[in-house]
Design a protein that fits this description.
The chain has about 270 residues and is an alpha/beta fold. Helices cover about 30% and strands about 20% of the residues. The protein folds into two domains: about 25-205, Rossmann fold (3-Layer(aba) Sandwich); about 215-265, rRNA adenine dimethylase, C-terminal domain (Helicase, Ruva Protein, domain 3, Orthogonal Bundle). The model is unreliable at about 1-15 (pLDDT under 50).
Length: about 270
């Protein structure tokens, strides 16, 4: 609610205030041009998919939210953990009332019964966990557009041979095509983070990755990269019979294998 500040013979209505909480990784986007570029990317995805269910993760002070609420024919929900920000959003944008899920994104079930899109300036301290949440929802989420720390965004988009190619990128790319959209400078936020940021778009792959099982694939990738400096033979020895380990592919290191290579190897696991 607004509060009243007496000033001689008249009253000023001061806007509702909020605080920034480092413990929640809060860096609020303030650059309207960046907001518009993110929304433009979303509108393109809405047009391509025909999906009108949308979830915003971590709306914070509403930099993106105010644009999302204006989209036509969109069934919109926001997920916000911070009670203070929930109160601020409901006060500042009355149309968001009853559309906020006041929980952590990591703790909720799918917010829609039908397929939905995900967008957000994701809290950097849980950004990788959010990606794994999207993977849990992959059958429901054909597109996700998110702001990440640039290093994380690059890692998600990296291909074989890159120094930042690893577990997160492979597991995401196994199910999504990753497009790095653009950089975002620290000055675009309040407070400015100490790092650059990047916006990426995940689009669900139409082709299904053939694996022995998802669990086998996840275990193989994680085991291989836990000792990424070793040859694959030494890193994953416990997962294969000795006769299989004689194959030349095991002379390589994990970052030299493609996603299809890892998928193929799952069928040779014990």
């Amino acid at each position: 609610m607004p509060f009243l500040v007496p000033c001689h013979s008249f009253i000023i209505f001061a806007p509702m205030q909020y605080t920034l909480k480092k413990s929640l990784g809060q860096h609020f986007l303030k650059d309207e041009s960046i907001c518009q570029r993110i929304v433009n990317a979303l509108e393109e995805s809405i047009a391509n998919t025909g999906i009108h269910q949308l979830v915003e993760v971590g709306p914070g002070a509403g930099a993106l939210t105010k644009y999302l609420l204006q989209l036509q024919d969109i069934n919109f929900k926001a997920v916000e953990l911070d009670a203070e920000k929930v109160a601020y959003l409901e006060h500042t944008y009355p149309s968001i009332k009853n559309r906020i899920i006041h929980q952590s994104i990591l703790d909720i079930a799918e917010p829609f019964d039908q397929r939905f899109l995900v967008i957000g300036n994701f809290p950097y301290n849980i950004s990788s966990q959010i990606l794994f949440k999207i993977l849990d929802w992959k059958e429901q989420v054909p597109v996700c557009i998110g702001m990440f720390q640039k290093e994380v965004a690059q890692r998600v988009a990296a291909g074989p041979g890159s120094k930042v190619y690893g577990i997160v990128g492979i597991l995401v790319q196994a199910y999504y095509k990753v497009e790095y959209l653009f950089d975002v400078h620290p000055e675009s936020f309040n407070p400015p983070p100490k790092v650059m940021s990047g916006v990426i778009r995940l689009e669900r792959r139409q082709d299904k990755l053939e694996v022995k099982s998802e669990r086998s694939f996840f275990v193989l990738v994680k085991t291989a990269f836990n000792q990424r400096r070793k040859t694959l033979r030494n890193a994953v020895r416990g997962l294969f019979e000795e006769t299989v380990l004689k194959d030349d592919i095991f002379n390589k290191r994990a970052e030299q294998l493609s996603i299809d290579d890892f998928a193929m190897l799952t069928f040779k696991m014990r």
